[in-house]
Amino acid sequence: MQCSPDTTSTVWGHGPFRLRPRGPIFGQTYEDPGIELLAFKPQSRVFAIAGAGCTARALAAAGHSVTAVDVNARQLAYARSRTEGEPARLGVVERMLSFGRGLASLAGWSPARIMHFLSLSDGQEQVEYWDRWLDTPRWRAVFDTLLAPRLLGLFYAGPFVSALPQDFGARIRQRLRRGWSLHPNRSNPYASALLLGKAPAECGPALYPIQFVCADAAHFLENSQAVFDAFALSNIGDGASLAYQRRLRTAVERAAAPGAVLITRSFREPDSDTAANWAALDRSLLWGVVEVSRIGGGSAIRNPYMIEELHCQPRRGGAKHSIRPPLPNR
Ligand SMILES: C[S@@+](CC[C@H](N)C(=O)[O-])C[C@H]1O[C@@H](n2cnc3c(N)ncnc32)[C@H](O)[C@@H]1O
Predict the structure, then answer these.
(1) Ligand 1 centroid to 50 CA: how many Å?
(2) Could you give all domains of the chain from N- to C-terminal order, each with its CATH number?
(3) From atom 12 of ligand 1, which residue's Cα is the shortest distance away?
(4) Is 214 in the pocket of ligand 1 (CB under 6 A)?
(5) What is the mean pLDDT of each successive set of 10 residues along the chain, which is 330 residues long?
(6) Total-model pTM
(7) Which of 167, 187, 245, 265 is the most exposed place for a label (fewest CB within 10 A)?
């Protein structure tokens, strides 16, 4: 597989870490393709960032025609191998998560508690169990230390760390708690992926073959004749310079069909919690921003469940979200 010369200014060209790993960075995707499946019109021509390929495979299995692009040749080869039936492998991210789970077990998370928590399906019960048995002061101290930008900066390249909120640990804990209140653990593959390291079940076979391309997203879109109805851009804006983000936006607009839909994610905190942010709907639980917008006019599309505001009340060491009825399974 040939990778086009690196013509991009995005830091992702060198990968997110200070050292370059030999294998894939992401063994699976921690993004819920349920968002894309909900927002894209049927049989769309989709431009998707490949990563581990999970989003591309889920969209192709649902009848979309997918072009999956990644600037990282190893990651792209891994994503392609998964569509050819190769088994999932652990990436650097899965090894880091496994290390974190080891520390959580030292901080008191027993397998029995985790299994019980994952067997629950009522949002209120999940939050109560979380507060009582898992969100302990010892676990919070470990978690916040592991996610402190200063510590992350030992492994991650500078721009990725600067893109994160200073209190990243506390923010991720809030997002987890919000997710427990909304999504039944028992049927949430991302809950077991995060807490047990279990890979989400595979989607069905692609209805159309996925086209894999090793290239920078902006470079590809600037030079391709293809037109797309939908764009799944993952969080490639995190850590990228403003200049690159503007270039990418122009390239997306150039390649977009009228009325095309764009989905971007980010680990940053949202500017304000509005219905334009679909992050609460994403069962992978980690995102601060999942923005769905229509290209041309750039108008944000409101999330269909109208989860608009997060009511914050003081709670030991953190904010509390209102408990809302669980979303229907997608
Ligand atoms: C942005 S990362 C995020 C992965 C995601 N957070 C997850 O849960 O798996 C996904 C992929 O995007 C690729 N990527 C980042 N910036 C890119 C760009 N400008 N063009 C093409 N691929 C890019 C990375 O190489 C990586 O494999």
Answers:
(1) 7
(2) 27-88+204-266 (3.40.50.150), 92-200 (no CATH)
(3) 51
(4) no
(5) 46 72 87 95 97 96 97 94 92 92 94 97 97 96 93 83 91 96 96 91 81 97 97 95 94 97 95 80 95 84 62 35 40
(6) 0.89
(7) 187
